[in-house]
Structure formats: C-alpha cells, structure tokens
Amino acid sequence: MKNSIGMTAFILASILAGVVAAQGMLQDYAADQMIAKFQKATCEELKAKKAEPPSEKEKVAMEFMRNDDQAREIFVKKVAAPVMNKMFECG
Fold this sequence. Notes:
With 91 residues, this protein is mainly alpha-helical. The protein has helices at 2-40, 43-51, 56-67, 69-90.
C-alpha cells in the first residue's frame, strides 16, 4: 500500500514537472518571437503594426500573462531590454 502511494506521488510529481517545463518552453518561445519581431522590424513597420488589432494568438498570450504573475514577470524580464532599445531607436 505504501509503495502504491509513493509511486502515485512520484507519477504526479513527474507530470507536474513536465507541465511546468512545457510552460517555461512556451514562455521562452513567445519571448524569443517578440524579441525577433522587434529586432527585425523597421521603425515604420512597428508603427504600422501598433495600429493593427491584436491577433488571436496575441490575445491568448495577453490573457495568460494577465492571469499568471510569475509567467508575466519572467516574460517581461526577458523582453524588456530589447524592446526598450528598439523604442529608443525609433523615438
């Protein structure tokens, strides 16, 4: 009986670790995509993009960040410097 409980706890911990790792990979991917978008785009392209409504993917990502403080903090720490540098370049 004790082995069964221990094995169940181990399996659940493994699943949770996998979910957390996957979430981190998604955050990294989203941050990397945003950084790449800002680094590759011209100032004119970014200004034009600002006027467009967000895509469905962007809406989902923004909602996720609104609801997960830790995910938002990690994302912002990764993208803040490259995005701000581009903003300064573009005025």
